Amino acid sequence: MIPESRKPVENRFLSSEAFVQVFNGVVEHIFKSSKLLTTMQSSITDLIATFDDAQVLHQIAESFAKKKDNDAAEGVYRRILEIDPRDEKALRKKTYF
């Protein structure tokens, strides 16, 4: 999934909407399992650094916050603000951390 996320939208095997839905499901599954989350940590870090879909990044940030990993959540919100400096939700959440 991560290599696919780096491709331009028009070159992905799924439409943009379908990709986000599938990716949201994958993220949700990863965050349900602490062991899987630990195993996937470096991949998630790579994803955050390269992914430009704010909706998915918000889900990742909220999942980190639920796990009480505030440093990771703050990093994701910073990434969202790199993409869109006016993202109100990210601005609000970032000030929380």
Describe what this molecule looks like in 3D.
The protein has helices at 2-5, 16-32, 34-50, 54-66, 70-83, 88-96. The relative contact order is 0.12. By secondary structure, it is mainly alpha-helical. Helix content is 76%, strand content 0%. The chain is built from six helices and no strands. Helix 2 (16-32) packs parallel to helix 4 (54-66) and helix 4 (54-66) packs antiparallel against helix 5.
What would the average pLDDT be, to the nearest integer?
81
Rg calculated over all Cα atoms: 13 Å
* Spatial separation of the terminal alpha carbons: 29 Å
Per DSSP, the total helix count is 6
Percent of residues in helices comes to: over 70%
What overall geometry do the principal axes of the alpha carbons give? Answer: globular
Number of β-strand runs:
0
SSE string, helix = H, strand = E?
HHHHHH
Tell me about the largest β-sheet: none
Question: What structural class do helix, strand and pairing data support?
Answer: mainly alpha
The stretches of 5 or more residues where confidence is low (pLDDT under 50) are none
Question: What fraction of residues sit in β-strands?
Answer: under 5%
